[in-house]
Amino acid sequence: MTLLNCEDCLEQISNYLDGEIDADLKRTLEEHLGLCRHCKVVFDSTRKTIELYCDGKLFELPIRARDRLHAALRRRWDEKVR
Amino acid sequence: MAESPQVALKDDSVLVTEAKAGSYAAFDELVNRYEKKIYRLGMNLTGNPEDAEDVLQEAFLKAFVHLPDFREDSRFYTWLVRIAVNEGLMKLRKRRSDKAVPIEDSVDEEGDVMPREFADWKPNPEEQYAHAEIEEILRNAAQSLSPGFRTVFLLRDVDGLSTQETADVLGISEGAVKARLFRARLQLREELSKIFKRG
User: Cβ of A38 and B39 within 8 Å?
Assistant: First the structure.
């Protein structure tokens, strides 16, 4: 089995997160992550970074902005059908 | 809205067909489905609530105006995102008050992104900060990326577009999407590590 160095591991972290690496490389990478604390930290915190940005409660649409949008669209629609 | 339970089950493509045929309820349902996501995209892209509201407003108004021209060779949402991204990037260009410089000028897909922060993060940082603080931290970190990297990260990781859809929206290759996504993720992680690391 080929061993990965840290640079190779980091190069593959993004593809690994996307499930876009083949089974052999995945196994090798997981072995490296099990042994290398630095790469494991980078992997875990990169995954957490994505999770944080995907929180659906972030940057909620203000009601006032929503109302303004719907009023503008309704006005445009009414002008079009008039 | 009285008809929403029935309308909500329809595919976007059905709603698009109905909206093109003159149904405001169908178009309104498309707006209801995506208004939150487009606002969030605007916030992440511009980092500014006023600009995000303008992006939201302009994206849907343009979608309304150009709906008859939408050829449906992509998902409605992908088409809408393309409009919103263009609006957002225009906002950024105006803010830089240098309209002659393309937004892609600062994209460096070969630059060094090797991590420097190797400390473990505090567990569940989102629970250790107030909601508004987390929003500010994430907004500042996103703004530290160049627009070319930021947009790819937002479309792929936050909006869930595929690599190909992201490439189509931005007019770049799939290879460029992957290269930028890799760097964007690591750069964001590096920024957030400065705040969320233990100790």
Answer: no
**Across the interface, do A42 and B115 touch by the CB < 8 Å criterion?**
yes
Answer whether residue B60 shows pLDDT above 80: yes
Residue found under tokens 């169908």: B26
For residue B186, give the chain A residue with the closest CA.
Answer: A46
A→B contacts (Cβ < 8 Å), by residue, are: 7, 10-11, 13-15, 17, 37-38, 41-42, 44-46, 48-50, 52-62, 65-66, 68-70, 72-74, 76-77, 81
**pLDDT over 80 (residue A82):** no
Tens-digit pLDDT profile for residues B75-130: 999 999 999 999 999 999 988 765 554 555 455 666 677 888 888 998 899 999 99
Rounded to whole angstroms, the Cα distance separating B143 from B180 reads: 15
Task: Please return the burial class of A22, using the count of CB atoms within 10 Å of its CB with bins 0-12, 13-18 and 19+.
Answer: exposed
Question: Cβ neighbours of residue A35 under 8 Å, at least 6 residues apart?
Answer: none
Among A10, A52, A68, select the one facing B115 at the smallest CB separation. Answer: A10
What predicted TM-score, i.e. pTM, was given to this entire model?
0.90
Mean pLDDT in residue range A45-69: 95
Provide the token pair at B47: 């980092």
Residues B53 and B51: their CA atoms lie apart, in Å, by 5
Residue partners of B121: CB distance under 8 A and separation at least 6? A41, A44, A45, A48, B192, B193, B196, B197, B198
- pLDDT digit string (tens) for B67-85? 999 999 999 999 999 999 9
Q: Which among B31, B54, B66, B118 is the top mutation candidate for probing chain A, defined by the most A β-carbons within 10 Å of its own β-carbon?
A: B118
Closest CA to A6 of A36, A50, A45, A49: A36
